[in-house]
């Protein structure tokens, strides 16, 4: 039975056949055509509560199918009651997402399951022409997926009326609010029916305090569903291995470490994402010679929308190997087959680390995460190691610290050494060692090397 308001209901970590759910057979056929024959814990656990109309706060590891967890029951709810085409400019469901890429991805998931019911969907986001969006909204759509800024543009322009909204969803809510969209989200929700008159669904990988505040302000008798484990803190996928290598602060030397990591540990990788803190680092890594002969492309806020879409399409199709991206541009990106994620600098928060890590190891696939960390960042990464309930190991198998021997020998002279990253098997292929492995007594030395 549902727990009392404010307490988490733990969802069992198990998969359930899609045939056992009261879903339109044509939708089940669509799912099976995509290779989806079982629902993950978050998908199966949220279906009935969302379908029943409850306000929901749900958290799960990245890569476990949160989008389908709310798309399916919303489509079923609207589809069963639908009498035909939607009213002009008055959708029945709105989904807010932090980035343009995520808007497109969520819209694609909705279209997959909405088509059998004949429901119309649209994604709206900045950087795309307003004209086609205005035309489609005025024709009438049942479900709108969009970024807060563009949603507000349509509301203020009179082309989007939220008075008929039955379902409001915040996807990647922690990232959206962390990016500074809190006021925009509040304004949008105030344009919709009040709490209790519409359903509110909040899906997130993490639930920091500002998420709890949002729940208090915009939900009524919410049900909190947990597919992570309420006492374990934010977690990454259990199929992902985590590593760190000490790198110099100086850009040219740090780039050399990155190149070594990619050369040695990216062997055989089909897709790699490198996260940078700034657009400048992103561009310099791609346009300079730091990555050697590896094919790479940049993704950040200054890249025009048409080029962003081309870049993501080419990355999915394997036309280049390394996507170098800023956090803001890459949040929510869902690309299968990402083998390796590298943080050029340690991210500012545990939540950012969780989301970066979530770009690999999706849907149970294996993956690896490597953080380049300098002396000023060690304490922050050490805190992640404790909070995530996972092991961030030194990249060198025979090292008790993050600092490779060759780098330690030359660091005092300002260099990084000739063989910064020791030769070893590609990431994801390591075997646990009886000695020097990742047992209880082998925690890396977080102090001086």
In short:
The protein has 449 residues and is α/β, with parallel strands linked by helices.
What would you say this structure looks like, in words?
It is built from 16 helices and 17 strands. It has 449 residues and is α/β, with parallel strands linked by helices. The protein folds into 2 domains: 8-226, 3-Layer(aba) Sandwich (Rossmann fold), CATH 3.40.50.300; 240-424, P-loop containing nucleotide triphosphate hydrolases (Rossmann fold, 3-Layer(aba) Sandwich), CATH 3.40.50.300. An 8-stranded parallel β-sheet has the order 1-10-4-9-8-5-7-6, with helices on both faces. It has a 7-stranded parallel β-sheet with strand order 13-14-12-15-16-11-17, with helices on both faces. Strands 2-3 form a two-stranded antiparallel sheet. Helix 6 packs across helix 8. The protein is globular. Mean pLDDT is 81; it is low at 1-5 and 398-449.
What would the keywords be for this entry?
Rossmann fold, 17 strands, globular, 449 residues, seven-stranded parallel beta sheet, alpha/beta, disordered C terminus
Overall geometry comes to globular
- The SS-based structural class is alpha/beta
**What is the CATH first-level class name of the largest domain?**
Alpha Beta
Share of residues in strands: 15-25%
The total of beta strands comes to: 17
The number of helices is: 16
Helix fraction bin: 25-40%
Instruction: Return the domain count.
Output: 2
Q: And the CATH topology of the largest domain?
A: Rossmann fold
CATH homologous superfamily classification of the largest domain? P-loop containing nucleotide triphosphate hydrolases
